[in-house]
Amino acid sequence: MDDELDAVFFALADPTRRAMVAQLARGEATVNELAAPHAMSLPSASRHVKVLEAAGLISKRRDAQFRPCRLEADQLKRADEWMAPYRDFFEPRLDRLEQHLKTRMADKEGN
Amino acid sequence: MERTLTLTRILDAPRELVFEAWTDPTQLDWFYSGNGEVTQPIQLDLHVGGEWRQQMIIDEDTEYITGGVYLEIVPPERIVYRFGAVGGWPDLAVESDGPIITVQLNELVGSTEMLVTVSFPDGVSDARVQQWFDTGIRDGLGQTIDRLVEKFRG
């Protein structure tokens, strides 16, 4: 585990920044556009963007008038790989829990 | 620094039933998704400090005990436990710094939102966390960015 990955997890620990990442997964967006859904000031949004940028999760493209942000998918992939073993342990189990509950509900309705 | 992973599911069942599925040893078969016949009964002591121990079988030669030690129990909405078992995997005798699992159950209309979070307590060194992840069972499952984003959506 290195400092770079630390920065990624720190960046993703905040719900506003996660929402920004999700928004950027749908395409490029300016800081203005990233701020819009969160009813926050531009300086606040800008601070969040800087944290994401520092983690290498997003980059800014030079444009004539404004600088749209884009998602850096590779960095997100690294974080994902790091978490993979735990997800791999729990995902199939949660699938089975869903099945178990379906059976339980059916039993209840049958009685 | 926060090192967490959250899995979210919407379950078509009242949360009392979901809570039971996590805490009633006669119902915890779903947690075992291995191969072969389990020979040890599930042990579960639903108190703070109590243990949950359950046998896992990977193949003929590989089996281990897993489960947890309860840190918080709030029926029917919340279970927090330290992941692992004494003498099992993760081994809590050695790994008092292991990951903490939080199961949060939120009531929706006619269904339950379940959030399962894996987190490492502050004070655990990154090197230790890395070891934890390295001992995980990797199957090289590739994930799409979309799914990851979905998962991280707060």
From TrEMBL, chain A:
GO terms for MF: DNA-binding transcription factor activity
UniProt-listed SUPFAM superfamilies: Winged helix' DNA-binding domain (SSF46785)
Domain called HTH arsR-type: residue spans: 1-91
Gene3D superfamilies in the record: Winged helix-like DNA-binding domain superfamily/Winged helix DNA-binding domain (1.10.10.10)
Stored NCBIfam families: HTH_metalloreg
Name this protein carries in UniProt: ArsR family transcriptional regulator
Organism for this UniProt entry: Glaciihabitans arcticus
TrEMBL record, chain B:
Signal peptide region: none
InterPro entries in the record: ASHA1/2-like_C, START-like_dom_sf
Pfam families linked: AHSA1
Annotated CDD domains: SRPBCC_CalC_Aha1-like
Name this protein carries in UniProt: Activator of Hsp90 ATPase homologue 1/2-like C-terminal domain-containing protein
Family: Belongs to the AHA1 family.
Top-rank taxon: Bacteria
Domain Activator of Hsp90 ATPase homologue 1/2-like C-terminal: 12-150
Gene3D superfamilies attached to this UniProt entry: 3.30.530.20
